[in-house]
Amino acid sequence: MTTEGDVKPQFYICNCFTTDNIFLEDYKLHVRFVSEQQFRLDYQPLLERLGCVTDRKFEDVLEKISQEVDRRRRLGETSAERAAARKDTYRPLHPHVYHLQESHLAPKFKQIVEYCRRDDAGEDGLLELLEEEAAPRVYRFPVFEKSFCEELVEELEHFERSPAPKGRPNTMNHYGILLDELGFDDGFVTPLRERYLRPLASLLYPDCGGPSLDSHKAFAVKYDMNEDLDLTYHYDNAEVTLNVSLGKQFTEGNLYFGDMRQVPVSDTECSEVEHRVTEGLLHRGQHMHGALPISSGQRWNLIVWMRASRERNRLCPMCNRTPSLAAAEGFADGFTERSEAPANASCALT
After folding, report:
1. Cα separations (Å) of 131 from 137, 188, 199, 280?
2. Mean predicted confidence (pLDDT) in 36-46
3. CA distance 70 to 58
4. pLDDT band with cut points at 50, 70 and 90 for residue 350
5. pLDDT higher for 31 or 232?
6. What average pLDDT does range 65-78 have in this prediction?
7. Alpha helices, DSSP H only, in the chain?
8. What residues contact 83, with CB distance under 8 A and at least 6 apart?
9. What are 215-237's pLDDT values in tens digits?
10. d(CA 176, CA 85)
11. pLDDT tens, 283-309?
12. Whether the model pTM is above 0.85
């Protein structure tokens, strides 16, 4: 955990943020856009096979990409503006949920973390306390008390109904909340990562930066019968991800996991994993996954993308190149200027 006297490093984004992994929802496709000429050469034949067969449809694609690139370029400025406006206009319904307390946490989760903090802790002993899912190295465990999940969802819904400006988590989730803009980072997400999740990840994912998770992006997403129903197959901009089901009442909507992103989709078999309220699923960020549609009700999830600069400083997980850095606010995308070599060459594929 960061202590008094520690100097928080400057975090950066990779310049690929404005060009790579742009999601075209109508075609369920992630694309890279550097220029129109490059884009036509790389994607026009594929888009035509997916139904983009008229000039008008292609122009619509280019317009949506232009809007997304512009949004990303202005993200730091607009995010700061929203956070400032939120402080002036929004009054929390449950102020205590913004500060992590032991009483918020499930007893089983506290037992697991306490084991991880022991000097003699090891992966084998930890696995005896966890429920490994059908997908390799995906683990389920209770995280929060049900009463806390209910109050957190009430707070998120209260914010959704407020006139305060809102930013959305990413191009794939249209309904959700960026928790740093709402004020959850310092008192809630950072201590959750440093005190509880990093000890766990250190034992489970030593090859994926688990011991050196030093930043995060946290957000809540909502699935509703009249809004987003599901989430397309993807990987996360993270070394390790925690996904907690907060509620409310819903049916179906399980997660499914394939293989690591380096494995061709044609060689992949997916495994379905049930998502239970109050419980979290911990997995490697580069593990391909998605969410099946809910068939009734409404579901809220808390997502924490945890990053390790020692890993990503060497290779950007989103563009597979040495990162070209640009200054940004807050934790940005988790890159730093530190050049120390990571202990592991890559995150294991199995």
Report:
1. 10, 25, 17, 11
2. 97
3. 19
4. low
5. 31
6. 92
7. 36-49, 55-73, 75-89, 107-116, 123-127, 146-161, 179-182, 190-191, 198-204, 309-312
8. 180, 181, 183
9. 999 999 998 867 665 677 889 99
10. 18
11. 999 999 998 888 888 889 999 999 999
12. yes
- The helix/strand/coil state of 181 is helix
Question: Could you report the per-residue pLDDT of 146-170, keeping only the tens digit for each?
Answer: 999 999 999 999 999 999 998 888 7
Range in 95-99, 107-111, 170-174, 207-211 the model is least confident about: 170-174
Structure tokens at 42: 């790389």
CB atoms under 10 Å from CB of 168, counted, come to 15
* Alpha-carbon dihedral angle through residues 127, 283, 222, 163, given to the nearest 10 degrees: 110
Residue 8: count of CB within 10 angstroms of its CB? 9
Nearest-angstrom CA–CA distance, 308 and 114: 22
Tokens standing for 270? 């997916």
CA nearest to 175, candidates 287, 305, 303, 286:
303
For 32-64, b/e burial (b = at least 16 CB within 10 A) is ebeeeeebeeebeeebeeeebeeeeebeebeeb
Tell me the longest C-alpha to C-alpha distance in the chain.
64
Mean pLDDT estimate for the chain? 90
Report residue 293 as tokens.
């549609």
Q: Which residues of 224-243 are buried (b: 16+ CB within 10 A; e: fewer)?
A: eeeebbebebbbbbbbbbbb
Q: How far apart are CA 285 and CA 241, in angstroms?
A: 5
Find where tokens 């992630």 sit: 30
**Contacts within 8 Å (CB) and 24+ apart, 160-163:** 160/222, 162/89, 162/90, 163/89
Contacts of 249 (CB under 8 A, 6+ apart): 297, 298
